[in-house]
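@channel anyone free to eyeball this complex?
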Amino acid sequence: MSRGLRLIPIVLLVWLVIGLAWRLVKPADTAIPSQMVERPVPRFQLPAAIDGKPGLASADLATGQPRLLNIFASWCVPCVGEAPVLRELQRRGVAIDAIAVRDTPEALTAFLARYGDPYERIGADRQSAVQIALGSAGVPETFVVDGKGVIRRQYIGPLNASNIAGVLRELEQVR
Amino acid sequence: MKRIAFALMIVAASPVLADSNLPPAYWSNRQLPNPKQEEQAQALMAELRCLVCQGQSIADSDAELAGDMRDLVRRRIAAGEKPSAIRAWLIERYGSWISYKPTGEPAAWPLWLAPLALLLAGAWLIRRRIGFRAKS
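replying in thread with the prediction:
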């Protein structure tokens, strides 16, 4: 065997070690983006999640005005951190609807009483069916939906205060 | 002392449950009565990736979302939908990431070509070795 060929295993080993070290320093992004962005919200109809607030259907998301669709749950800890941001957006006039994933009316009522209720409508998605139809991979997630009911942007994970300006700008852009 | 107390507290702490308080979906842990359909569902579920425990299939995962996806798969197969249609529906939502079975798109070509390339490399190696011995 020639010298060059003999070096191949060493080169492969070095390459492997560099690859492993690189991924240790810079872990891969594990978020699964929805492929539904830039496409209409799939048809669905969800019953009311709590008393005194209407449920949510896909038709409610095509009202001519852009809206936010928040996927959340009372059992979701990061949703607590996101609550003040959603309240602030609502205070600035943003229309927010929600899908409550795998939730009970009692737990939801307690959650909203404690952390505030910025939602116009809340649909109960008891078996994650609409969440899956939306291509959402977890809670919380937030979709920016334009006036025609087309999904324009997906936020994976909790919104934080630094997102407020961006969300307001996007809602203005898709108007 | 404080440190030890803290360590003990961590040992005694129970993890925060990031799960809902609803029971699993009806078909998530139940087999379909029709064995042929159940077989189809099992084969498909083993090839669908769990969104929560990435790296596990939804057939293996205990995550609630995986349970809800098993329910969805079994429901649709019981309703007569083809497994390939269900897979396509999920790929439409989550991208080809969701399926373990590689698609024919260009990004997957190296995957299909690798076995062929390795076989050819092996054949070349064997030829060289055998040729070498025959000469000496």
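from a first look: Helices of chain B lie at 2-12, 35-45, 64-78, 83-94, 109-135.
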